[in-house]
Amino acid sequence: xxxSEEVERIRSDxxxxxxxxxxxxxxxxxxxxxxxxxxxxxxxRIYHNWDWSxxxxxxxxxxxxxxxxxxxxSDEVALIRSTTEGINAVASGIAWxxxxxxxxxDLEYPANVLPWYHxxxxxxxxxxxxxxxxxxxxxxxxxxxxxxxxxxxxxxxVQFVNGFRLDLKELSKMAHEVGxxxxxxxxxxxxxxxxxxxxxxxxxxxxxxxxxxxxxxxTGLLYVKKEVLGEINPQYIGFESLxxxxxxxxxxxxxxxxxxxxxxxxxxxTAKRFEYGSRxxxxxxxxxxxxxxxxxxxxxxxxxxxxxxxxxLMKRLEEEGYSTxxxxxxxxxxxxxxxxxxxxxxxxEDVKRFDSKLKERGIVISIRGGGIRASCHFFNxxxxxxxxxxxxxxxxxxx
Length: 399
Ligand SMILES: Cc1ncc(COP(=O)(O)O)c(C=O)c1O
Known about the structure:
Blueprint (H helix, E strand, L loop, with lengths): L3 H9 L8 E2 L10 H16 L4 H18 L6 E4 L2 H11 L7 E5 L8 H10 L2 E5 L8 H7 L4 E7 L11 H10 L3 E5 L11 H4 L3 E5 L11 E5 L1 H4 L14 H13 L24 H17 L1 H22 L2 E2 L11 E5 L7 H13 L2 E2 L1 E3 L2 E5 L6 H17 L1
Parallel strand pairs: 1-11, 3-4, 3-5, 5-6, 6-7
Antiparallel strand pairs: 2-8, 7-8, 9-10, 10-13, 12-13
Helix pairs in contact: 2-11, 3-11, 12-14
The site of pyridoxal-5'-phosphate has 13 residues, from α4.
């Protein structure tokens, strides 16, 4: 467990905490100073010192760090710009056969819904939706939707509205029994808990870096298991997607002006086949630095601290008599708690008014699914929770 001195030291690495109480890691997390400095250093390095050789190095290092974080091989990790990009890369890269189906559930964020419907329209597929019960997804309900024609089961590890955590191991078994792939949107779990792709049986996974990983927007990872890489033929390709030797060869042809308008021979057999076009190396350096920061603290310790904070918040909600749509049992929750303080947060104008009243008090949360979504990350304190509940109570008494 993190000691209170450690927590204070950690908090001093996030200058923004001098100004606000931040309980919105499920939306956008602040970055630690080291990540901000890594981005600035990267900009200086390439634009002041013109050291472009560093770009490939930082991308390689970041892939390795991301792979280490989720227990993958670095050849199974591609750098992407957002969760949505990764989901689309997988959804558009599968050689679909008409009549196949995709199983999702009714709690998914639209990023993990729309790309599947898009492919369904193009290829004559069926999207099957597993229904939740009081914010809970029973694995048995997935079993009822999965059949021999299921090609992909696409779920979030942790749901964005209520923080429900799915048992991926069990789901993976169900998907694999019929030869389907398990795709996971892991943006609400990586950085907050131990995500081990091997142990959980994940085939492919996408996550942006700007939430629980505390990295910058426009960064993220796409994981594709070695055995599955050949099954997903990228929709978009570029130089970077080719086998290393051919990438070099083609670049040589571009430089010398000899024969560069031509077909390619082979895509990379690694997840780099999903990388294309220029990207911001300073942002990649920022993501790597943020993850190194988390790893130094220790993901298991971060997970335990989040658990302690969520336990405390759930207990306080019970004392206040506020209802919650977050599961009560620890196994099925993570860093997100969603509660209703008796205020009506169904209309947009009410949400805006409530949100700005909290902002006036320097508190940042999110409203999702008509409730208050409070995120507890390792940098939060019990006092943040107390102040949030005090403010909510005061605002509720005003209306
Ligand atoms: C579960 C989930 N998936 C995807 C996204 C969007 O991710 P990105 O902006 O990285 O595409 C969000 C953002 O809130 C989310 O909560």
